[in-house]
TrEMBL record:
The protein's name: Glutathione S-transferase, N-terminal domain protein
InterPro entries in the record: Glutathione_S-Trfase_N, Thioredoxin-like_sf
Lineage: Eukaryota, Amoebozoa, Evosea, Variosea, Cavosteliida
Keywords, alphabetical: Transferase
Domain GST N-terminal: 42-112, 185-221
GO molecular function terms noted in the UniProt entry: transferase activity
């Protein structure tokens, strides 16, 4: 195992540690509530402490989402986010909102047991946000979903993207992968391996649909039928073969 890969796994595991089990299990109280007919759209930054709490809420409620990554200096979706005026767009109700607290309260009210049942780990408190910030600190490197990858520069992709395409020499202009099909990611928020994949998608500004498969999810059987086993490390390996 390379030093870079060892660092990625260790620091991502440390990030998961600071969030405990938040986002790793579906709330039993949410299992019988209606789910949106169309996926909610989230404009988010993987490393953002507040975006993390929103993603944890989606895992807890077993909700899928269409993700539009907005890393720092991103040019693909950040202008769209400013124009739309909201981090969340719900095509089912035409609702649009920006603050993480409002988004979490909204999804718990519409697709869960109600905003009065929001767990303390994702509430709008100094403790919750502080622990989420600690997770961000564990992954505080530019390639960990913090900043847009600038493919038109001569810098090595190895300093920006933790994936197979980072093997080019420092003096060779990195080549971006061509992806012509929609990306579907089976993931759950607190998995250290899934986080690394999401970070790669973030810096590349690649939109994707996340299918949350936290413990207790109704979609776990579907994921096992696709992958052969319930192990999100397989998702990580798709980017690191």
């Amino acid at each position: 195992m390379s030093l870079r890969k060892t660092y990625n796994i260790a620091s991502s595991s440390a990030a998961s540690f600071w969030r405990g089990t938040s986002g790793s299990r579906v709330l039993s109280s949410s299992l019988h509530h209606n789910k949106p007919k169309e996926n909610i759209v989230l404009y988010q930054k993987e490393s953002c402490p507040w975006s993390r709490k929103v993603r944890e809420a989606f895992s807890m409620l077993d909700l899928d989402a269409n993700i539009k990554p907005c890393p720092i200096e991103g040019t693909k979706y950040r202008p769209e986010l400013k124009q739309m005026g909201g981090k969340e767009q719900d095509p089912n109700t035409k609702a649009s909102m920006y603050e993480s607290k409002d988004i979490i309260d909204y999804v718990f009210d519409h697709y869960g047991p109600g905003k009065d049942q929001v767990p303390s780990s994702i509430q709008d408190t100094y403790t919750s946000t502080g622990l989420s910030r600690m997770s961000t600190l564990m992954r505080a490197m530019p390639w960990n979903g913090l900043i847009q990858y600038k493919g038109d520069t001569a810098t090595s992709a190895a300093t920006l993207i933790p994936s197979k395409i980072t093997s080019e020499p420092h003096d060779v202009k990195p080549k971006m992968p061509e992806i012509n099909k929609p990306i579907h990611l089976y993931s759950f928020e607190n998995s250290p391996y899934c986080r690394i994949v999401r970070e790669a998608l973030d810096v590349l500004e690649l939109p994707y649909t996340v299918h949350n498969v936290a413990q207790g999810s109704s979609k776990r059987k579907m994921f096992v039928s696709l992958s052969g086993k319930m192990q999100c490390e397989e998702l990580y390996n798709l980017f690191h073969k």
